[in-house]
Design brief:
homodimer; alpha/beta; Aspartate Aminotransferase, domain 2; 2 domains; seven-stranded mixed sheet; four-stranded antiparallel sheet; 15 helices; pyridoxal phosphate (chains A, B); pyridoxal phosphate binding (chains A, B); 4-aminobutyrate aminotransferase (chains A, B); PyrdxlP-dep_Trfase (chains A, B)
Chain lengths: ~475, ~475
């Protein structure tokens, strides 16, 4: 039995769209109502989660869609997963919701076991966790950890006290207490929308306009020729990797302020599903070690199985392991993994806040992780992804201009391709919805597939049929 | 019947400390275990929330404390509140937890009713809400809204398009797309620990050291003479208000970069329970209107009833209402209130993220708000606070040096006072725990009281007895 059959014996067997347009009339009405108190301009439709099951999402007009977007890549086990529903009636969950602890000061007796549970799905080489609340928050907290670690090292170790000058200047937001350290990220990156994470983000102006930013640099992320496996492309892509690595090292050496950390997504998701090679990710490890810079991998969107390994960057087998790995989305929780005990700041209350995360969401993460391990969902996703990629190669052969730069081979269901224009991409996504498939885009003209880990071969067949139909309609 | 009797018929009648030291041996062991995966250095004890009830928190050594700290001021209705427990078994809660929506793109049919419910406890004059995840996040989101609003106004209105120069420069983190706008906050302020909120925070160096900050100014928060109601002090305090208002206006006029927003707590909580007068808060409204600056009130710690009004700043009856009010903590959720439709950015996806808040936590907020209204808990807190303040005045008379600057009269249970030194304050808090009362400090030498809204007269009597005993022991 596949995981979908195990979990969802009553999952629909096929999508069903009953309204002439999407959003349908009832969604339209509710979006308008919601708009009186909330910003509802981005709503595609209003969902009825009571009726949604497994890989199918149902809207308030009773349209039933096969969901390959899964709440912007954040549903790991499908809708109404029975194991997650069971979790809700536990005492642990009741305590985390009704008696939400300030986990730094008054941790619950359940906290250590909960964290030990989530650590079972930590990336290889990572042994500790610090918890936050969202992807942006995870990246901001990791950036804080990186700055404190970097400053401590520069100061001469964790026992060297702060100077009076540092203690005084920081209260005026000035150096040396508030140093002009920088984080190096990449063009087309997306790391969140707060002020440090936002300064690292570089995918679209609309995410950043009118917001003050730190004066931090964006290096170039390698842009590969596809398919990756022809000899000619392999050679060109190696040259591209070396070019981009040289830019990173040059920025570290020459940037106006010290670069404390390098922050990178192993696949730039929001920015267009741009992949980085194992060679490139290892090259960054070598450069960051050489220059004593903290290496942070952002696995907010790529993490927890969708790429066919538990954590995307594991395919690169980076040695020694990176310093910090951030997570959120499919984990339904957020935070960062680390392994060096010195990454914990030298004094208490430096990395701290009222709740220090959300134990309720960590409990959910723990159960998701357990289900992934118990049901072999990473292997399943690798297998289903390969099956889907083969079918997409056939479509690419037939419609090369509508399936350009097909990418994500051997990366599970984390697959994307380009349309000729933004207009055509939007048209394809709209047509796919009308044909019963909820699919997302990224960057200007890419389609990204982000189903849950319970997506299996029969869902692929349904999707490929809808996609084949849709491309003839646009 | 008081709310504690209604909710908690089986609440303990008295605290009970059974270990010679706190943390007790079992807490010690668990804190050490937790420390292998988490930063547990700030833990006072490990709590057993299954055994905690109403106003009493129980630790894993079976010590029973009357809780006047309530998870750093974040528990509104006591532990194991039956109405919140009932909420857990609803379909709405199941959907919000198991099928966590990306509420911007695929809002649940439950979202509009949930927000309409929380809007019933919005501050007077505020009609809309945007949701976040924590106090820091709420302030960062409000600061983003303020910057976008300010820029839009400066640009000439919401229909004026971004320039090519803005669109290009912002991708390099440079102006004019990433403008050098500033937020003015106050010395001793606490607004959170991320990078924009952290630049506004100015209470202790340890919160800020080694982190880059925006070059934003901190004005002076008025420091009053207590008691407030003597003629001499009233006159001196008015002079102090005028002095501080003049500094704010001067900074707005002369700061090196445009000040887009003023951010203030009506009572600086972390910074020492420093109160601002109605005159001062209205004065800021006048100045911000005059100079076209956004006025943001941070009610993360002061909000939702503890000060004897639903929102602390309402006592000042600021006219016209402030532009943004942030909330978190007792709301068990987070976000900001606003009323000007132009505070919604002119384009979608400018104020956006994957989850756009957490509907599960908003449902809890809605129920908390409903219970507060249905049970008259704001009035109760005002009454109980007055009762407690009277008792503290008696203690102050007897031990003037141990109860200096007693403050919070007519501010519900939001009461604080100063000890002569940090050392004595720490000793008092420790002794209070050994005498069965869990109480928090703020700033260097203040004690702050932050019980839940279900705290009533009988709890006051128990606390005052323990406090009286403790002051003779330190």
């Amino acid at each position: 039995m596949t995981s979908a059959e195990t979990y969802y014996p009553n999952e629909p067997t096929t999508p069903k769209v009953v309204t002439a347009a999407i959003p349908g009339p009832e969604s339209e009405r509710q979006i308008k109502e919601l708009g009186t108190v909330f910003d509802s301009r981005c709503a595609y439709f209003v969902a009825d989660y009571d009726k949604s099951t497994g890989n199918y999402i149902v809207d308030v007009d009773n349209n039933v869609y096969l969901d390959l977007y899964a709440q912007i890549a954040s549903i790991a086990l499908g809708y109404n997963n029975p194991k997650l529903i069971d979790l809700l009636s536990t005492n642990e969950m009741k305590n985390a919701l009704v008696n939400r602890p300030a986990s730094g000061n008054f941790p619950a007796k359940e906290l250590a076991p909960t964290l030990e549970q989530v650590l079972k799905v930590a990336p290889k080489g990572q042994t500790h966790v610090w918890s936050g609340l969202s992807g942006s928050d995870a990246n901001e907290l990791a950036i804080k950890a990186a700055f404190m670690y970097y400053a401590q090292k520069k100061r001469g170790g964790e026992t060297v006290p702060f100077t009076t000058e540092e203690m005084e200047s920081v209260m005026d937001n000035q150096g040396p207490g508030a140093p002009s350290f920088a984080v190096l990220s990449f063009k087309k990156a997306f790391h969140g929308r707060l002020f440090a994470s936002g300064s690292c983000t570089c995918s679209k102006p609309i995410h950043k306009l009118d917001l003050p930013a730190f004066d931090w640099p964006h290096a170039e992320y390698p842009a590969y020729k596809y398919p990756l496996d022809t000899a000619e492309n392999a050679q060109l892509n190696k040259i591209e990797d070396d070019r981009c690595l040289a830019i990173v090292e040059d920025l570290i050496k020459t940037w106006k302020n010290p670069i404390a950390a390098v922050l990178i997504e192993p696949i730039q998701s929001e920015g267009g599903d741009n992949h980085a090679s194992a060679y490139f990710l290892q090259g960054l490890r070598d450069i960051t070690l050489k220059h004593d810079v903290v290496y942070i991998i952002d696995e907010v969107q790529t993490g927890l199985g969708a790429t066919g390994s538990l954590w995307c960057h594991e395919y690169a087998n980076i040695q020694p392991p990176v310093d910090l790995v951030t997570f959120s989305k499919k984990c339904q929780s957020a935070g960062y993994w680390f392994h060096d005990p010195l990454m914990v700041p030298n004094k208490p209350y430096r990395q701290f806040n009222t709740w220090c995360g959300d134990t309720a969401r960590m409990l959910i993460f723990g159960t998701i992780g357990e289900e992934i391990l118990n049901n072999g969902l990473v292997d399943q996703t690798a297998r289903v992804g390969n099956y889907m990629f083969e079918k997409l190669l056939v479509l690419q052969e037939k419609y090369p201009e509508l399936f350009a730069n097909l990418r994500g081979q051997n990366r599970g269901t984390f697959i994307a391709w380009d349309l000729p224009s933004n207009e055509l991409r939007e048209k394809l996504l709209k047509t796919l919805k009308l044909n019963g498939c909820n699919v997302g885009g990224c960057a200007e003209k890419s389609v990204r597939l982000r189903p849950s880990l319970t997506f299996d071969e029969k869902h692929v067949d349904i999707f490929i049929a809808a996609l084949t139909k849709s491309v003839t309609q646009i």
